[in-house]
Amino acid sequence: MGVVELALLAVIGVALIVTVAAFSKRLGIAAPLILVVVGLGLSYLPGLPTFTVPHDVILMGVLPPLLYAAAVNVPVMDFRRNFGAISSLSVFLVLFSAFATGSLLFVLLPDLNFAAAVALGAVVSPPDAVAATSIGKKLGLPPRLVTVLEGEGLVNDATALVLLRSAIAASAGGLASVWDGVADFGFAVVAAVAVGLLVGFVTVFIRSKLHDPVLDTAISFVVPFLAFIPAEELGASGVLAVVVAGLYTGHRAGAAFSAQARINDSVNWHTVQFLLENGVFLLMGLEIRYLVENVDPALLTVRESVGIGLGVTALLIVIRFAWMGPLILFLRAKVGYQERRTNRFRTALDSMKARGLADARTQRRHTRGEELYRRRRADVAQLRSEGLDWRGGAVIGWSGMRGVVTLAAAQSLPEATPYREQLVLIAFTVAVVTLLLQGGTLPWVIRILGVRGRNATEDQRDLATLLDQISDAGLRVLENPNACLNVEVEVDPDVVERVRQSTFLRSELAWERVKALGAGTSATPQLQYRELRRAVVDAEREALLLARREGHFPSRTLADAQRLLDLEESRLKPRLGEH
Q1: Whole-angstrom distance, CA of residue 93 vs CA of residue 322
Q2: What is the pLDDT, as a whole number, of residue 577?
Q3: Which Pfam family would be a valid example here (predicted)?
Q4: CA 534, CA 524: separation in Å to the nearest integer?
């Protein structure tokens, strides 16, 4: 296929993705589900070539930026609070599922050795959180459920790929014992975390020194590959290194990057994530025809392969649901333990204070202890308010859709593997069935269970309270305006008052939104002000367009005015509680 044909297919693919994504919102169906079906239908069109994408393209070209885009948007605070649930689902459940499905395949396929069977188990074990989180956010799932699903989707890929590598090595005789496999797994994790932290630290430092948004964006695009390639060369998990680098970058962005850099990052990586993840689901549908045509019926027919795939799917669903019961009990017990430990820590801090804070070192220790205590209390309060019950467990249990990693990892199985084409078809069967069955019915499950998520009024009240808190800190700066401006001359009191009033207005607007959301009342004064200001900006934009048509002003002047209006319009964009 020539360059022109590839470019044309890429344009058609992007157009399809955008079209499907736009209509999926109206239909209330997650875009990945529709794209799989569309891809499958297109693959059987007369004259359309068969599609197969080398697994290296997905694993090295698509997966790193896709995981990085997701990781930079996951709050480290939420990830830390839910680390127990995330690690249970993304590490231990994946390992258990891989060995359980491997055992089933070992029994069903007589020519397949156990290590190769576990390799396919590793391929089909990690769920893809894309469809689940997109549905969950649309239906307003509790934030903790979304965080757990996102965190699981970030880490389980690394677990599965490391296990896949070890299983392939064992199948080829490359591992002498089980302990060699355990050691390889441990090294892959530890080295990946170290590489990810190092890459995250270095790139954040460099980007914090840049003031050109173009240069900053250019560096941000190579960060996932800077983490992935060295980790893979060291024999570690490149995927986990990318996730760690993304989490570190997202956590440090608020302090290290400018506002413009953060805005650019958000837009750029959301776009990358949208195109890559939906493109992979479209490719999944397109490749099914190729897989079916390449199955050798002398070894195992297509019907038998699909039947085994359905059996593996049923086993994975049963295992995931069975896992959720003990996990929920464990998480409840863990919250109680954290609360008791926090209370003991409070007692220790009080004892330290009663003995006296004699020197500066003791005072610093006590101050750090108080900060740690407040964080632990906040953790306990948050976990109590957003506790996982059986309904949340049922939603997570039904959110086991497979996707990107299953697609790529299945095709990375060695050519000498017995039943290779059939194993790839089995993996694709698991991915497609879970996507269509679980992804298609997940909205019904959420509604039937009555799972309710974020409360808009409560969220807005929290925002207003936070704005009051940070406004108080900001207004204290105005007590000494000369120090802010670094000048000796007296600052005009009217200027100080204007700054103070603009700060008050922001908090006042936030509380007015709370009132409007709670009572469903008509627009409040501040909301009316924003509506009128938006109308003024719209009129100004029309006048600017007229001036551009008439050509009386230089293009650079028109561009400057355009940027000013864009900035004002983005600031006045409707928010929660506005129309």
Answers
A1: 10
A2: 46
A3: Na_H_Exchanger
A4: 15
